[in-house]
Amino acid sequence: MNLNRLTTSFFLLVILGLVACGPSQETKDLQLKAKQMFGALPNKMPGSENDTEALISLGKKLYFETKLSQNNTQSCNSCHNVEGKAAGVDNLPTSPGAFGKSGDRNSPTVLNAGFHFAQFWDGRAPDLKAQAKGPILNPGEMAMPSEAEVIKKLKAEADYPALFAKAFPDAKDALTYDNLAGAIAAFERTLVSSSRFDDFVNGDHKALSPEEQAGLNTFVASGCSSCHNGNLFGGNSYRKIGQVNAYGTTDLGRFNVTKDPSDKFFFKVPSLRNVALTGPYFHDGKVASLEEAVKKMAYHQLGQTMKDEDTTKIVKFLGSLSDKTKTN
After folding, report:
1. How confident is the model at residue 1 (pLDDT cuts 50, 70, 90)?
2. Sign of CA dihedral 53, 55, 58, 62
3. Is 80 annotated as a binding residue?
4. Is 79 a known ligand-binding residue?
């Protein structure tokens, strides 16, 4: 056997060895646990099966339309930035409105929002369409005086009447406030993120590093998954902030919607999808770093003083939940 054949045979053996060397039993067990406890995020949001190309295109144009604000300075994207590497937020503690005054709550990410069981921190809107109607008329946000004024403004534009007619071909009067919100919701239903965690759950054992796998184990063992569960890692329940140790806030949360005293200080559990990209954190935006957020949640929600090494592990894992297009 000559040298070339020996070299070829050697490399073939190496390749076969690498192929044969699959995931460890621990990794396979963790993949199964992750699939059972959380699961991968679906590729499409509920309702998107009825969204046409014309409707989505109109919704995207409206999402970036500053004329939906009273002084033509602010769009949906101003607070929920989806351009480039932005992860559906403005990364501010609270967002300034069209006239500069900041609101009381942190702007949550619009990425994957259509998977949530309700919208806003207090759940006052049941779905994306209802949510889209709010900020445009909110005096502290886009500050338009009425639905009628919004429609009057859009009808004065050269392109919107035809675009609405195309997106809503069966409507007698297509350019309505309800249809405006429906179009924005259709665009938002396209904002589905895909992460390395999903790849891991779907069978790619190399998608998470050993450190990230250790972080996932710590995340579950520490009790974080008692609130941050399901394929969104949250977004599916209300919980009291400070359920073990009190959290200092004057915001009454869900109570402002229901007027039920038992709902005081209850907020929608935020999804941890893209959490490494969406700081600052909590409903008030007062926590700057993800490390601090993890420690505070452990203390206020679970009654734990989390060790630095466990915090580091969990933060490492949470990075695997980021949209791959926003991190590459």
Report:
1. very low
2. negative
3. yes
4. yes
